[in-house]
């Protein structure tokens, strides 16, 4: 983020909510950043517009100025747009055959990536077969053979005199005969979008049962990535994308453009010419690379962590005073969910050491939702004063939560136990014997 922007926002610092003006100013910078990252301008326009609508009126987190808050929202949006989690190729289990077809322009990295994929699948215990369907460049067949040999994967080829669709058909017969269970078809690209190329791919798809068509795109493609992705999607149909050459200095805006246009998941990224250089795609990493605002992002992370830390401190104070009740328990369950388990929450508290494992063992995270529903069935009074829980109250709660009364009993007992345990914790709870600072 530029200094100019920082200055603009200094004036606006103590506002509670994002105004339209705040968002507009910040999004101007974001737009520039995205265009610099080579995100297609139409995608940029659409994206910033939707963020604009969503961001106005949102609360500004403590410790951030409005500009930084907008960046945080932008970043979160980018991550969710590119898929919040990683997606895998739909490889069938056991010996069922999966057919994958590589598609993309010439030089995108299809042949290399086909061999990389074959290696990955082989390492997972699959029996892949690489198929040479690029009949236009004799060197392409040799290239696949060389790469296949390096990976210890058989390459099926019929030279350059047959039609690609016939080679693909024959290859599948060959794979069946030899118990190979993943067939990866390498196809011919062209320098530009080309009717013949599309027709060839469509032919293969019509005559062979292709389970996944993978579009391979050079991350350096930039603005043009949208057209490429759109044409392949419309004319051939794709199931996923692999973005190559991400080891270069491109910011990877193509990833966003492609995702926006195709809606298909990005499966892997190519990180080099070596056959092992194929990595999982992480939307969050890609988002911060595209946004290119590392300094703002690390500030935001710090602020987020300190918010969590504040909450953890608050909890610790309550524990110390021993007025920790079921309401707090409920809050802490939600927090744990958000923060990735009780381990991470306790890690933030000072003085937690050897006892960590005991506590983690006591709270079965898979049972957390049942626990939650039990607490939710308690009255406010019962939550803040568990002492009043007699048999008839417990019975009512059990019914409300749809569990056996024994589970309610167990929870109450567990709750009292963890309270006791917290009390005994050296240093942290500062009980009668305590007082020493741990950590
Ligand atoms: P195809 O025409 O689509 O089959 O593309 P190729 O597989 O022949 O790749 C074209 C060039 O890009 C080759 O020189 C590859 O070594 C190179 N290449 C492919 N993937 C990557 C990658 O992830 N990083 C880098 N740096 N080079 C790559
Ligand atoms: Mg090739």
From TrEMBL:
Main localization (coarse): cytoplasm
Classification via CDD domains: SRP_G
Entry-linked PROSITE patterns: SRP54
Subcellular location: Cytoplasm
Residues noted as binding GTP in the record, renumbered to the chain: 104-111, 186-190, 244-247
Location of the SRP54-type proteins GTP-binding domain: 265-278
Catalytic class of the enzyme: hydrolase
EC number annotated for this UniProt entry: 3.6.5.4
Keywords per UniProt: Cytoplasm, GTP-binding, Hydrolase, Nucleotide-binding, Ribonucleoprotein, RNA-binding, Signal recognition particle
Domain commentary: Composed of three domains: the N-terminal N domain, which is responsible for interactions with the ribosome, the central G domain, which binds GTP, and the C-terminal M domain, which binds the RNA and the signal sequence of the RNC.
HAMAP family linked: SRP54
Function: Involved in targeting and insertion of nascent membrane proteins into the cytoplasmic membrane. Binds to the hydrophobic signal sequence of the ribosome-nascent chain (RNC) as it emerges from the ribosomes. The SRP-RNC complex is then targeted to the cytoplasmic membrane where it interacts with the SRP receptor FtsY.
Subunit and partners: Part of the signal recognition particle protein translocation system, which is composed of SRP and FtsY.
Record-given protein name: Signal recognition particle protein
């Amino acid at each position: 983020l530029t200094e100019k922007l920082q200055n603009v926002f200094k004036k606006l610092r103590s506002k509670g909510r994002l105004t339209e003006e705040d968002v507009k100013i910040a999004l101007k910078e974001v737009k520039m950043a995205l265009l610099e990252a080579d995100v297609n301008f139409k995608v940029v326009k659409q994206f910033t517009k939707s963020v604009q609508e969503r961001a106005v009126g949102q609360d500004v987190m403590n410790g951030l100025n409005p500009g930084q808050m907008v960046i945080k929202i932008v970043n979160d949006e980018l991550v969710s747009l590119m898929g919040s989690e990683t997606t895998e190729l739909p490889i069938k289990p056991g010996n069922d055959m999966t057919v994958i077809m590589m598609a993309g322009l010439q030089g995108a990295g299809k042949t290399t990536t086909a061999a990389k994929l074959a290696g990955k699948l082989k390492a997972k215990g699959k029996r892949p077969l690489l198929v040479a369907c690029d009949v236009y460049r004799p060197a392409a067949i040799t290239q696949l053979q060389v790469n296949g040999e390096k990976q210890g994967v058989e390459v099926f080829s019929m030279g350059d005199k047959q039609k690609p669709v016939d080679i693909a058909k024959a290859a599948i017969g060959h794979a069946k005969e030899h118990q190979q269970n993943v067939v990866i078809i390498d196809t011919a690209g062209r320098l530009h979008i080309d009717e013949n190329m599309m027709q060839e791919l469509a032919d293969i798809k019509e005559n062979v049962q292709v389970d996944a068509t993978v579009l391979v795109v050079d991350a350096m493609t930039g603005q043009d990535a949208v057209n490429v992705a759109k044409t392949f999607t419309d004319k051939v149909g794709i199931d996923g994308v692999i973005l190559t050459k991400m080891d270069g200095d491109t910011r990877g805006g193509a990833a966003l453009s492609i995702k926006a246009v195709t809606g298909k998941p990005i499966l892997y990224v190519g990180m080099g010419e070596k056959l092992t250089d194929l990595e999982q795609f992480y939307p969050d990493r890609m988002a911060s690379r595209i946004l290119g605002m590392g300094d703002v992002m690390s500030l935001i992370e710090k602020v987020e962590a300190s918010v969590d830390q504040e909450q953890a401190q608050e909890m610790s104070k309550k524990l110390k005073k021993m007025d920790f009740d079921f309401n707090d328990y409920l809050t802490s369950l939600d927090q744990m969910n958000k923060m990735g388990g009780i381990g991470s929450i306790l890690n933030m508290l000072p003085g937690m050491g050897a006892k960590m494992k005991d506590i983690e063992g006591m709270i079965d995270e898979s049972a957390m939702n049942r626990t939650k529903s039990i607490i939710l069935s308690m009255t406010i009074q019962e939550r803040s004063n568990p002492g009043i829980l007699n048999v008839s109250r417990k019975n009512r709660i059990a019914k409300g939560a749809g569990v056996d009364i024994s589970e309610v009993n167990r929870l109450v007992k567990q709750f009292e136990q963890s309270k006791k345990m917290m009390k005994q914790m050296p240093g942290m709870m500062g009980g009668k014997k305590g007082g020493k600072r741990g950590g």
